[in-house]
User: What shape does this take?
Amino acid sequence: MGEWDKASEKGRALRCAESFRHLADTFAHLPAKKEELDREDVEEIYASVRNEVCDHCGKYANCWEWEPETTARLTYDLLTAVAQGTEMSCGMDPVLAKERFFHRCIRGRTFLEELKNSFCRARIDLMWNNRMLENRAAVAEQLQETAQIIQEIACTVFDTEEADSGLERRLKNRLKLQNVRVRELRVAQNGGYPRVILTANALHGHCVPVKAIADALSKACGCAFVAERDSRLTVGREQSVLHFVEDTRYFMLTGDAHATCAGQAASGDNFSVLTGSHGQVIFSLCDGMGSGPAADHESQTVIELLEQFLEAGFSAETAVRMINSSMVLKRGMESFSTLDICGVNLYSGTCEFLKIGAATTFIRRAGWVEAVTSHSLPIGMFREADYERSRKRLEHGDLIVMVSDGVLDALPQEKGEELMKYLILQTDTDNPAEFAHLLMEQILSFENQEPRDDMTILAGGIWKK
Assistant: This one.
């Protein structure tokens, strides 16, 4: 693609992002939510009930034409009694207000019942109006996130540079000896680390392993490069586009163990381990509300959505906000789940935790255990996701231990976390899979082998290459 074509396509993508942003703005300018009925609502109820009951009453002239002030005062006293159900601003007892109104009005009880029904309908309307405002705000947030994602993709895809002429010459010479012809060589930034995009084909009917091309690129650049995840394995006669990224300094191994709540056919816990193309390993653990098939379906939906967003290149924060807004839109179905996310950067050895109502996570280090806690609420409870972030530095041999609520709940409540730290230190193995199973056996010993809740342990160890 030529420079002019790239600039044109990038501009088109950015205009698309701006269109989504403008569309979000049309949803964002919303009236404020109302917690209670205001004066206008009460006036409307008053007028509606008066028209419904009084207009066809034979005593209408006596009440509203001859003594309108007295009738209006008694009516408002009754209205206040129904609205507040407590002492009124005038200091009159609600029961006394009803007695005085009944003494004045021959259709007093009918008027009162209609008044109560009108207030009930008004409060239901208020609830649904607030719900509609929340849904519109959630849609606006999703559109804003979509606009941001399109903008980021446009800047990432189209902002590549031509490789240094010296690097290109060295690489072409090295690969020519291996019967590979380089057609084009470009460099892009991959999460702060270089990514090399190479267009090449094999000469004279040869079939060249992509690993050999990666080795030649590493020698030409002076640092280790590997083919991007899910790349092709060989290059033949046909022209191929290959992506190479700088090799990571660390590698990870993972393991898991789980137990289902006694008497349930399915676990409400679901988890995922994703290896990203930006040198990241992302752990996620979701605990659905309750247990059994319904909780399993809820947590599985959250994990699948999270996987799709992360694999598409979205950040964990963006993915959480999108999932939260989708759950808010279907609120009323009681779909609340805790979500625990840990993203490990295999280049730097840092990890970032994103916890939404999740249980404590533990990091086993050399001779001690660190706890990562959170006091946030489950996902889907509020329009804006309530999550807490924290960042930690990992060292060679550290072990991350993520658990669902059921694991900590199985331990004595007054010293659950401290006991968990002790059990983690006593589990003497560096194999994450073996560690998870040995730790689960110790936890189950507190439950007499009959779990009262779903339990999941997810472990990941990091080592230098």
Remarks:
- Confidence is low (pLDDT under 50) at residues 86-92.
- DSSP finds 13 helices and 17 strands in the chain.
- The first strand starts at residue 161 and ends at 162.
- Residues 408 and 420 are 8 Å apart (CA to CA).
